[in-house]
Each structure stands twice: as structure tokens, then as C-alpha cells.
Amino acid sequence: MQQTLDTIFAALSDPTRRQILSMLLEDDMAVTDVAEPFEMSLAAISKHLAILTRAGLISQEKRGRVKWCKLEPDALRDASVWMQSFGQLEAINLDAFERFLVTELEDRDA
After folding, report:
1. pTM for the full model?
2. pLDDT in tens, the chain (110 residues)
3. What are the b/e assignments for 80-99, b being 16+ CB within 10 Å?
């Protein structure tokens, strides 16, 4: 389970990937539609999608000539269970959690 959590949290550590997941909450999207709001190449978006796919957070399938992305919400179950094991945590703000981890690592390295 630790490997799964590491992969999921690594995928969630990037704001672009978190935004992609938010976009996919609405509906399945073609890769080109996912790429549209970002100012980066289609190849860069494809790398982000590959990371999300490896983490199990999304799935990709070819429908005709178009590659589609679909959110896999059950993939967050392990991470959610792990976070809930801390008890009093209700809603997790991943950006705030990331800032906390950065601060902790900086303090540890100092």
C-alpha cells in the first residue's frame, strides 16, 4: 500500500495534474480538450496524463481516432483512508498540505 500512496501523492503534488483531475470531474475528455486551457505542448500534457494514469487516478482509452481520459475516483480511496486515519482531519486542502510538507522538510534540512 505504501507504494500506491507514494505514487498517488507524487501525482497529486503537481498543480497542473490537480487541475486536470478537477476538469475530469465534469466528464470524460479528449486529450486535446484537456490540453486546451494550458500553455504547454501536447507532449507535456501527455506526460502529465501518463503520470496520472500510472497512479490509477485516470484511465485512457482510444475511441476511434481520439484518445479519451476518464477520472477514476476510486483510486483515491487508499489515500483518503490513510488521511482519515489521522482522526480530526476533515476536508484536506492539498495545496495547504503541500505547503506544510515543504516547510517541514526545510526545517528538517536547516
Report:
1. 0.74
2. 566 889 999 999 999 999 999 999 999 999 999 999 999 999 999 999 999 999 999 999 999 999 999 999 888 887 888 877 776 555 667 777 778 777 877 776 66
3. eeeeeeeeeeeeeeeeeebe
User: How many angstroms from the chain centroid is the CA of residue 100?
Assistant: 18
Identity (one letter) of the amino acid at 62?
K
Q: Supply φ then ψ for residue 44, to 5 degrees.
A: -65, -45
Cβ neighbors of 56 (< 8 A, separation 6 or more) are 4, 7, 8, 72, 75
Burial of 11 (0-12, 13-18, 19+ CB in 10 A): buried
Quick check: 31 and 46 in contact, CB under 8 A?
A: yes
Interior angle at CA 21, CA 19 and CA 24, nearest 5: 110
Rounded Cα distance between 105 and 92, Å, is 19
Enumerate residues 6+ apart whose C-beta is below 8 A from 38: 16, 44, 45
